[in-house]
Amino acid sequence: MSTSPDHATAVDPELSTRLPELREQYAALQARDLSLDLTRGKPSAEQLDLSEPLLSLPGEGNHTAASGTDVRNYGGLDGLPELREIFAELLGVPVRQLLAQDNASLRLMYDCLVQAVLFGVPGGDGPWSAEESVTFVCPVPGYDRHFAICEELGIRMVTVPMTPDGPDVEAVAALVADDPSVKGLWCVPTYANPDGSVVSEDVARRLVSMPAAAPDFRIFWDNAYAVHHLTEHETKTANAIELAAEAGNPDRVLMFASTSKVTFAGAGVSFLASSPANIDWFTEHLAFRSIGPDKVNQLRHAQFFGDAAGVRAHMARHREILAPKFSAVTSILTERLGDAGVATWTDPDGGYFVSVDVAPGLASRVVELAGEAGIKLTPAGATFPYGKDPQDRNIRLAPSMPPLAEVEVAMDGVATCILLAAAEAAAA
Ligand code: PLP
What we know:
The protein is built from 13 helices and 14 strands. By secondary structure, the protein is of the alpha/beta class.
C-alpha cells in the first residue's frame, strides 16, 4: 500500500486562480446528467456470476455430508466439518476452533457483543451490562457498521489513528493499560476497510500481548478480506489466535470471516474462530438460538471449492475483475491531482476500498459536489464513530460494483469535485 502525495494539509492559496476553469469543468460534469454510485463495497454482477454453479449444487438427491449426515435435517451446530476444514486451512486455525454459520459475519460480531453484554465472556466478572460503562477502541478511519453496533448497544467509542501497519499500537496500549472499562478493540487485520492497511506481525504480537486492565478485553479481529488480494502477492494475515495463545492470552481474539465477497454476499457462509473456551462460550448460547445452520448451503460451498486451493483459484478470478477498477481509481487520482497537493489516497493491495483524505474541512463539500453531479459517494464522516469525522477530511471510495467504464467516469468527476472544493476554499 502506498499513499501519494505524503500529506494533504492546508490548501495552496494559488489554487484560487483555477476557480473559473474548475467551475466550468464542474458545469460540464453536471451537464452530463450522470447517475453513478461509489458508495457500498458490494461485489458486481460479474463477480457474482463466478459463483453461479452454486445455484445448482448440491443438486437433487445429493444431501449427504462426508460424515453421512443428512444435511437437510436439524443439527450440526458447529457447521459442516468439510467446509470448516477448507477455511481452517485458509484462516490458519484448528478445525475444532472454527465454527461455520449462516451468511453475514456481521451477525456473528453482533451476537458476540450481545452475548458479552447479556452474559459476559470467559475470564470476565459477569455481564458487561452490569459495568458502569463499556468502551471500545475504534481505529479510524474504520468500518461504519462496527461503530453502528457499538452505538446501538450503548458502548462508548474512543478512536485511535490507523497506520500503514494497522491500528496505532502505542495509542491502543495506552488506552487499554489502565482503564478497565476498555473491553474491546475493532481491528480489520488485512486490507482494512477503508484504508487497505495490513496489520504487521509486530503489531499483531503487541496487540495480543499488551497488558490490559480489563481481564476480559477482546480483540474483534474482523478478517473480512483475508483472501481478497488485488495483486499476485497473497499477503498472509498475522495469526492472532496463535500469537495470543503464545502470549498467555488465549481468549483475547475473536476472529470473523465470511464468503460474502467470495461467493454470494446475500447467501454465503460466515466463520468464527477463537480459543476453545470462547468457541464453547459462543456455542453454548447459540444453542438457544438455533438447532443448526444451513448445512445445505455449507455443503454446496464445500463442493464448489473442493479445497483451499479451490478458494484461492476462485479469488484470482475476482482479482481479474477488481484489479483494473482499483488501478483506474488510483491512476485517475494521480493523473488529475498528483501535483496539486489537495488530497492523499491509498493504493491498496487488496480489499474493497480506497481511502481519500482531502484538506481538513472539505470532505463534506466534495461529497456534496459529487452528489449534485450525479456521483453518489459514501457520506463524509461515515468512517468515524457517530458518523463524525472531527477533521471532515476522509472519503471512502468503493469501486467494486460499477462497470470499469463507469468507475473511470465517476473518478474523473470525483477529481474535479476535489479540485473545485479546494479552489473554493483557497478563494474564501
Ligand atoms: N467486515 C468488514 C470490514 C466489511 O467491510 C464488511 C462489508 O463491507 C463486512 C464485515 C460484512 O461482512 P458480512 O457480509 O460477512 O456480514
